[in-house]
Design brief:
The protein has 154 residues and is α/β, with parallel strands linked by helices. Helix content is 27%, strand content 30%. It has a three-stranded antiparallel β-sheet with strand order 1-2-3, with no helix packed on it.
Length: 154
């Protein structure tokens, strides 16, 4: 099994801390060198303590689920002899509360739009490929959120 790593870095600098009005902006650094600005969501911690231009953990979770699903879908489509020209997903997530009143990512909806060259599959074949991709996505197996897939043909 693989090991995956990310380095998360936050520094207070000269800002006060105990008043809880410190910046939540930080960076995520990945093994390939990509650096992504991170922050709390402005809906959780108001501006200016959050950075609206940065990626928040909730967005990252949704992007991770969407990306994993897409990578498996592309692989299964290629195995089926389909040539994909473009794949776009307008993914979204909804928070909920568990039985103890704690917030969690309760539902994710993937809305992949795929365009093809050559043979274009029908909706039934697309749905089957998405089902297969979902069954193989490790990220989907790692969360308790319900994941809906609303696939569209291009």
């Amino acid at each position: 099994m693989g090991v995956y790593e990310a380095r998360i870095n936050w520094e207070r600098g000269d800002q006060p801390f105990l008043d809880k009005r410190y910046s939540r902006a930080h960076t995520w650094t990945f093994d390939g060198g990509a650096v992504v600005p991170g922050s709390s969501a402005p809906s959780s911690v108001p501006l200016p303590m959050s950075d609206a231009a940065a990626v928040d953990p909730e967005e990252a979770m949704i992007a991770s689920l969407s990306s994993c699903h897409m990578l498996w879908f592309l692989a299964f489509a290629a195995n089926a002899g389909l040539v994909i020209d473009a794949y776009t997903d307008e993914a979204s997530g909804k928070m909920g509360k568990d039985e103890n009143g704690r917030r969690y990512l309760a539902e994710v909806t993937l809305r992949p739009y795929t365009s093809f060259s050559g043979r274009e599959p029908d909706q039934q074949e697309i749905d089957a490929l998405h089902h297969q991709a979902h069954d193989h996505c490790e990220m989907a197996h790692s969360v308790r959120a319900r994941i809906n897939i609303e696939a569209r043909l291009g």
